[in-house]
Amino acid sequence: MRVTGAMFYYYFVCRRKLWLFAHDLRYEDTDENVVLGRLLDQSSYERETKHIMIDGTVNVDFIQDWTILHEVKKSRSIEEASIWQAKYYLYFLQERGIEIKKAILDYPKLRKRQKVALTQNDRATIQCTLEDIEKIITLRTAPDIIEQPICRKCAYFEYCYI
Ligand code: SF4
């Protein structure tokens, strides 16, 4: 199973969101938060070559001098998911012989950065997470609604609650 960066990220945000996304229920194109994120992406780090698709599966924001992987984020509201997404990218690249040791989460609007590294324990966690993602995606029906504050900003809010 091909697990994209978005799928890995959604696993830490909401298992239902992961399932909906993996089953091609997409609302992101019109969601205000997603559109804002896209605009931020287009207007930041313009000198870098952005959106590097690797092995047809993960789409990395950019890799500075092939040594530091960067992910550009709008806010720190779901930072744990962003950190794991960056760790997954490092893992994915290393599994394919591309030894990039460090990632940085960039928050241009906040003028903040967060360094991310991949440890041996992280590698084990990622392997378990990939197995769990497969189990979730192959469920016959979507996991339950989580009823959390983040739902209000989720692209699937109307689908889940209205
Ligand atoms: S609205 Fe809430 S429950 Fe529904 S997919 Fe989004 S985060 Fe999950």
Automatic annotation (TrEMBL):
E.C. numbers: 3.1.12.1
Cited InterPro entries: CRISPR-assoc_prot_Cas4 (IPR013343), Dna2/Cas4_DUF83 (IPR022765), PDDEXK-like_dom_sf (IPR011604)
Keywords recorded for this protein, A-Z: Antiviral defense, Exonuclease, Hydrolase, Iron, Iron-sulfur, Manganese, Metal-binding, Nuclease
A Pfam match: Cas_Cas4
Cofactor stoichiometry and binding remark: Mg(2+) or Mn(2+) required for ssDNA cleavage activity.
Cofactor(s) the record lists: Mg(2+); Mn(2+); iron-sulfur cluster
Domain spans labelled DUF83: 4-162
PANTHER family from the UniProt entry: CRISPR-ASSOCIATED EXONUCLEASE CAS4 (PTHR37168)
Similarity annotation: Belongs to the CRISPR-associated exonuclease Cas4 family.
Function description: CRISPR (clustered regularly interspaced short palindromic repeat) is an adaptive immune system that provides protection against mobile genetic elements (viruses, transposable elements and conjugative plasmids). CRISPR clusters contain sequences complementary to antecedent mobile elements and target invading nucleic acids. CRISPR clusters are transcribed and processed into CRISPR RNA (crRNA).
Name used for this protein in its record: CRISPR-associated exonuclease Cas4
Source organism: Sporolactobacillus terrae
